[in-house]
Design goal:
This protein is mostly helical and 416 residues long. The protein contains 16 helices and 8 strands. 59% of the residues lie in helices and 6% in strands. 46% of the residues are buried.
């Protein structure tokens, strides 16, 4: 069961959709609060809710409806190619999680089908960029790889940012395919794997010539190649590149613009640490975690969804676990803060039959339409929006905090 801390956290019930915003006073607020659906009792319940929501957002082409604004009652025009391919990665990780722990085989089958559909969409949207080897996943080119008049009008800086996003998206697609291949032995997407691998090797070789802070996609390539070499250790080219990437991040403290820089650095570093057990990754996690908590995120904020921060901190704690002295202190601080951020963020998950959310003292947003968004994660009390990127982060984080529920589930099966 989720810890008693949830009793306090759910006093702030928050979860959204369109209609009217009403002012509430006194006992009316108490009555409305009492009518709220009861929160799920386990982390596993939240994971299932979020996975169903993500799958329900999937479109015929394999991609996902991206963002919904509960104030306007409309999907926004924004999209994010990185979050689109991270959706497939999240789903295949959740599938592996369900199978490994023998949880809900029917749901596992649905999740796998969605991941396969996503992979097909990624493969179909992969194109050659100029003279660059391999293929990258792109929103901006048609299937023949020819840019449209609109794409040719963009500025050189925008073109660079777009290319970096496509590289990052392709890294997630490669992780998804490799994990799918490893879990199922299905080689359907082998051609796409080869194209994505070739493109990422090329862009890695180019990036290694420049400072780490100039290439925002590198942590994702780092993670992708770490996964790749675990699944296919015979690939000598990637095996030779990985130590160079390790050194690229370890040599100097990397500037962190925001929490997502930290989070994906820690995920990649943990992936490498579990394979190499090198102390350099422990030092890296300790150094970056200290900087994050002392300089950037010094205080817990109850008004926002903090799944991304929680995910980075729990990954760092896994690198630091089993150490002594300062390492142990940093590990305990990181894990404790990670737990606080995750369980606090659960109140920003839309529950089944939810019909209203709190936007602040005395302000609520009402709509029957909320019921369509069960499992969605909201950005915060003053940010009544959801998008698939946030749902992915909460799903990935929740899998790290499900151990007690899995243990209880297995004990129950043993008694049957």
């Amino acid at each position: 069961m989720i810890r008693k801390i949830l009793v306090c956290l759910f006093c702030l019930v928050l979860l959204p959709l369109t209609s009217c915003i009403k002012e509430k006073k006194g006992s009316n607020e108490d009555t409305a609060a009492a009518a709220q659906p009861q929160p799920p009792g386990k982390v596993l319940d939240y994971l299932s809710l979020s996975a169903h929501f993500l799958i329900n957002q999937q479109q015929p082409d394999g991609f996902f409806r991206y963002e919904y604004d509960f104030i306007t009652g409309n999907y926004s025009h924004w999209d994010n190619v990185i979050h689109q391919t991270r959706a497939g990665y999240t789903l295949i990780q959740y599938y592996i999680f369900l199978i490994r722990n023998n949880i809900d085989s029917q749901l596992a089958s649905i999740v796998l089908s969605s991941a396969v559909k996503a992979l097909k969409g990624y493969a179909d949207s992969s194109v050659v960029h100029g003279n660059m080897p391999g293929k990258l996943i792109s929103f901006y080119y048609n299937k023949s790889g020819i840019s449209t008049p609109e794409t040719r009008k963009i500025s050189p800086d925008h073109r660079i940012r777009r290319l970096e996003a496509e590289i990052a998206a392709t890294a997630f697609a490669l992780m998804t395919e490799m994990s799918y291949w490893s879990a199922t032995s299905n080689n359907t997407f082998a051609d796409a794997r080869k194209d994505w691998r070739k493109a990422l090797i090329y862009h890695t070789q180019q990036a290694l010539k420049t400072p780490a802070q100039k290439n925002s996609f590198m942590p994702l390539i780092w993670q992708a190649f770490a996964i790749y070499t675990q699944i296919d250790p015979s690939d000598k080219e990637i095996a030779e590149l990985l130590p160079q990437i390790d050194a690229y991040f370890m040599t100097l403290p990397r500037y962190m613009r925001d929490v997502e820089d930290y989070t994906w650095d820690m995920i990649a570093a943990n992936q490498r640490y579990q394979t190499t057990r090198q102390l350099s990754f422990v030092n890296f996690a300790a150094r970056q975690t200290t900087r994050l908590l002392e300089d950037m995120y010094t205080q817990h904020d109850t008004g926002i969804n903090s799944c991304s921060l929680s995910l980075g901190l729990v990954e760092a704690s896994l690198i630091l676990t089993g150490r002594t002295g300062d390492y142990a202190r940093i590990e305990q601080t990181a894990l404790g803060r990670s737990q606080l951020e995750y369980y606090s963020s659960l109140k920003y998950t839309i529950l089944p039959n939810q019909t209203w959310i709190t936007l602040g003292p005395g302000r609520t947003l009402h709509s029957q339409d909320f019921k369509r968004f069960a499992g969605a994660s909201v950005f915060g009390m003053h940010l009544p929006r959801t998008n698939i990127g946030l749902v992915e982060l909460c799903l990935l984080t929740g899998m790290r905090f499900s151990n007690e529920d899995i243990k209880e589930l297995k004990q129950g099966k043993d008694k049957e």
